[in-house]
Design goal:
The structure is a homodimer. Chain A is of the alpha+beta class. Helices cover 29% and strands 26% of the residues of chain A. In chain A, a hairpin with a 5-residue loop joins strand 4 and strand 5. The longest helix of chain A has 14 residues.
Chain lengths: 138, 138
DNA sequence: AACACAATGCAACAATGTTGCAAAATACTT
DNA sequence: AAGTATTTTGCAACATTGTTGCATTGTGTT
């Protein structure tokens, strides 16, 4: 990882609190995406549910993490490894979601192909979510 | 539309009920995807919330409609126009979601490009969701 | 150390989704 | 067409997920 937990928070003008440190650390340690429920489990009763919601929201706004669209109505979050800044996300990589274990991965090295749309549609972002089986479930 | 409401239900071995007829008709009339909330609004107090949930679930299982992944945690449903059968969906077209009005469209004629993944991932389905502004919001 | 400000926890609420079961509607049989 | 078996619906109750206001606590700054 390029920056430590504290550095990342400071760079984004966020005050350094226990919950932010701990939650950001979870993302940095994890090689897959995390849902709100995952964080709630892994942090035990340490933080309030509301705090986790608000922390995730703040991180998304600051461009520290991004949300991943899923078919199953779960909101997945993952670290932004590209140069995302406040209000501007640039995570144009492919996401993979395992049908068996539910784990969601960011495939940082697989880029999203350009797709031409019919007239009338103005493209802002393209999300690609591939589902199937991951290496642990084959 | 290729088949009528009743025909579609019969072809899928579903008994013909008011709620199924009405909800399927909503999808056939609509040129965009519908969320549970949309159906609840458009059908008024005619059906119970639970009935709508169960009907949507049944339609998905039968391959009549498919779910569309979204970034904003809303579950969108749209008619399957390809040859989907029970348990096997083949909706490999691109979806577009308007950031302004929230409307989700199936771009049936824009096909999903093949994407090569690293070893270890077994692909079942590829979903592409493009967001931006639709013709009504530009 | 003291102050201003921001973040947290709690409580209460709202929205969304699920389950069991009796009543009603549908499909099937004769 | 009427009766029966089966499926579907509506209701109630519950579970989960997400939101908001406000007092308390913690953080950053002087």
């Amino acid at each position: 990882m390029l920056f430590g937990v504290k550095e990342t928070l400071k760079r984004n003008q966020l005050s350094i609190t226990d919950s932010r440190k701990k939650i950001l650390e979870l993302f940095m340690r994890s090689n897959s995406a995390l849902a709100h429920a995952d964080i709630e489990k892994q942090s035990g009763t340490e933080f309030d549910r509301v705090t986790i919601y608000r922390t995730l929201q703040t991180f998304v706004e600051k461009g520290i993490i991004h949300t991943i669209p899923t078919t199953d109505n779960s909101v997945q979050y993952a670290l932004c490894k590209d140069a995302c800044t406040e209000g501007h996300h640039h995570d144009n990589h492919v996401h993979f979601m395992c049908d068996d274990c539910g784990t969601t991965y960011c495939l940082d090295h697989v880029t999203v192909p350009a797709i031409t749309l019919p007239k009338g549609f103005k493209v802002t972002q393209t999300d690609v979510v591939i589902s199937g089986k991951c290496m642990n479930c084959v």
